[in-house]
Design a protein that fits this description.
Keywords: Sigma factor, Transcription, Transcription regulation. The longest helix has 24 residues. The protein has two domains: 88 residues, Rna Polymerase Sigma Factor, Chain: A (Orthogonal Bundle); 66 residues, Winged helix-like DNA-binding domain superfamily/Winged helix DNA-binding domain (Arc Repressor Mutant, subunit A, Orthogonal Bundle), CATH 1.10.10.10. The chain starts with a helix and ends with a helix. By secondary structure, it is mostly helical. Helices cover 71% and strands 0% of the residues. It contains seven helices and no strands.
């Protein structure tokens, strides 16, 4: 029999699991790594759930736990042996409406974002998810003004990377 807390957590996670998937896509380059990171973030969310007081939205809290978990694992991974990423070209889903040009632009954008540092990646991710600066600052634990300044600097970095 599930406890009320467990049912609440499962319901919230099911409703917001795309947040975790997006974080995983940002910090991984193949499906196995994505699955591993998804599992690790889910475990960390579950461990931290008893301390979730509801002061912020579940999504804001989940972003914070998820990004912190991804950043921690990413930093640990940098100290380990590097493997060759699997080419995502083999995983394209063919449909009549598939836009290859848009896919190529997304690949370029993700490649440019991958060159940013961990905090900048998290900030651009939250920005692209249409979070306002208040939510971004709460999630990352920085001031709203700092979030805006960092975002402007990140935009400049991305322009330089994409248009050398």
């Amino acid at each position: 029999m599930k406890s009320e807390s467990e049912e609440s957590f499962v319901k919230q996670l099911k409703a917001n699991q795309n947040i975790v998937h997006k974080i995983c896509r940002l910090y991984t380059s193949d499906q196995d790594s994505h699955n591993d990171l998804f599992q690790e973030i889910t475990i960390q969310l579950w461990k931290a759930y008893p301390q979730f007081r509801g002061d912020s939205k579940f999504t804001t809290w989940a972003y914070r736990v998820g990004l912190n978990t991804a950043i921690t694992l990413y930093r640990k991974k940098k100290r380990s042996i590097e493997t060759t990423p699997f080419d995502t070209e083999f995983h394209r889903i063919k449909t009549d409406e598939y836009n290859y040009e848009e896919e190529e632009q997304l690949k370029l954008m993700y490649k440019a974002i991958s060159e940013l540092n961990d905090i900048d990646k998290a900030l651009i991710f939250l920005y692209l998810e249409d979070n306002d600066y208040t939510e971004i600052s709460e999630t990352l634990g920085i001031s709203e003004v700092n979030a805006r300044v960092k975002m402007n600097r990140i935009k400049g970095k991305l322009k330089k990377i994409l248009n050398p």
